[in-house]
Design goal:
The protein is of the alpha+beta class. It contains 9 helices and 4 strands, in the order ααααβαββαβααα. 60% of the residues lie in helices and 6% in strands.
Length: 334
C-alpha cells in the first residue's frame, strides 16, 4: 500500500494553517516549479507540480481536510511512538554495553586479585622454605639428611587477616608484635592492592589454629575484622581432627541415648551403667552419671582437646624426624 503524501510538509505549512495560508503557500510553490517546467523538461517536476495541485484542492475542502487531518495525526502519532521505541531500544543497547564493560572490568579485577593471591602465597612459601632451610643448616650441618619439604596448606598454617583500614594502619612489624606472643609467625606479607589485609604463614598448623580459635576471646585479635584460612578451607589435618571429634561425639550421644532409653514394661533404662552384668561395664561409665556426656562438655573443652591432639601430633612428627637424623648420623660414623 502506497503511503499517503504529507501535504502540509509539501506546502511548508503547519496543520493549523488557514485557508489564506494554504493559497499563499501554493502560489509560491507553483510559481517556482512553473518556471522550471518552462525551461526544463522533467517528469519528476511534473509529478511534483501535480502533487501541489492535489494538496491545494484537498486542504481547501473542509470535509476532505478534516478526514485528512485525522489520518495525518494518526500517522504522526505512529511515527512518534516508533521514535520512542527506537529510543528505548538504544537505551537498552547502551545499558547492555555498559553492563558488559562492567563485567569485563570485574573479571579483570578478579584475575588481578587471583594473581596477587598466588604471588603472595608463593612469596610466603619461598620465605618459609628459606627460613626452614637456614634453621636446618644451622642445627644439622654435618647431617646428610634433609628435612622433607612441608606443604603450606597441609603442614603449615596460612591465614588471611583483615582489619578496618580507616581505624587501624598496621605495618608488618605491628602485626608481628601482635601475633608472635600468641603464635610463632614464620613469614608475613601485606596486601599490595587491597589495603587492610595481610597473609600470614605460621610455623605450624597448631599456631594458625590457635590464632583462629582465639579471634573472639583474645583482646589483641579482636582488633581484626576477620581471620580465615588463606586457601579458603582448613588444612587437611584440621579437617581430619574435626571429623574424628564429630564421630566421637556422635558415638557418645548414640551410646548414652541407647543406654537411657526406657523399656515399655518397666519404664527403666534398657541398660544401666551401675549393673555389673551390663554390656557397657567395659566403658567404665560412672554410676552417678546424669544426662548426656556431649551436653556437659562445652565447646571450649572440645577445642582444647583438639588443640592438644594437634600439638601432640606435631611433637610426634618432630621426634620422628630427630630420631631418623640420629640413626643416619650413627650409620655415617660407623
Amino acid at each position: 500500500m502506497e503511503a499517503e503524501a504529507d501535504y502540509y510538509q509539501l506546502l511548508d505549512i503547519e496543520i493549523t494553517a488557514s485557508t489564506k495560508d494554504i493559497k499563499n503557500a501554493y502560489r509560491r510553490k507553483a510559481l517556482k516549479y512553473n518556471l522550471y517546467l518552462i525551461n526544463i523538461v522533467s517528469t519528476a517536476l511534473a509529478v511534483l507540480f501535480h502533487a501541489l495541485t492535489q494538496a491545494q484542492e484537498l486542504l481547501l475542502d473542509p470535509k476532505k481536510r478534516s478526514e485528512y487531518d485525522q489520518r495525518h495525526r494518526a500517522r504522526q502519532e505512529r511515527v512518534k511512538k516508533k521514535h520512542e521505541m527506537d529510543s528505548k531500544r538504544r537505551h537498552a543497547q547502551d545499558e547492555l554495553e555498559r553492563r558488559e564493560q562492567e563485567a569485563k572490568r570485574a573479571k579483570t579485577d578478579q584475575d588481578q586479585a587471583k594473581a596477587e593471591y598466588e604471588a603472595q602465597l608463593a612469596k610466603l612459601r619461598e620465605e618459609g622454605a628459606k627460613r626452614r632451610q637456614e634453621d636446618w643448616v644451622s642445627t644439622a650441618e654435618d647431617s646428610p639428611l634433609q628435612e622433607p619439604a612441608l606443604h603450606a596448606e597441609t603442614e603449615l598454617g596460612a591465614l588471611k587477616i583483615k582489619w578496618k583500614r580507616k581505624k587501624y594502619d598496621f605495618s608488618e612489624q605491628d602485626l608481628l608484635d601482635m601475633l608472635n606472643p600468641i603464635a610463632e609467625v614464620d613469614s608475613l606479607a601485606l596486601s599490595g592492592k587491597k589495603k587492610g589485609s595481610a597473609s600470614v604463614l605460621f610455623k605450624s598448623v597448631v599456631d594458625a589454629y590457635n590464632v583462629l580459635t582465639k579471634k573472639e576471646t583474645h583482646p589483641t585479635l579482636s582488633k581484626f575484622e576477620s581471620i580465615g584460612w588463606l586457601t579458603g578451607k582448613p588444612p587437611s589435618i584440621v579437617e581430619k581432627m574435626t571429623k574424628a571429634e564429630e564421630l566421637k561425639q556422635e558415638a557418645r550421644a548414640a551410646l548414652f541415648s541407647t543406654n537411657n532409653r526406657p523399656t515399655a514394661a518397666t519404664g527403666r533404662p534398657l541398660f544401666t551403667t551401675g549393673s555389673q552384668s551390663s554390656f557397657f561395664k567395659r566403658f567404665n561409665i560412672p554410676s552417678n552419671f546424669k544426662g548426656s556426656f556431649a551436653s556437659k562438655m562445652s565447646d571450649d573443652d572440645y577445642e582444647s582437646i583438639t588443640l592438644m591432639k594437634m600439638r601432640q601430633a606435631e611433637r610426634d612428627r618432630v621426634l620422628a624426624i630427630q630420631h631418623q637424623q640420629q640413626q643416619q648420623q650413627q650409620s655415617a660414623h660407623e
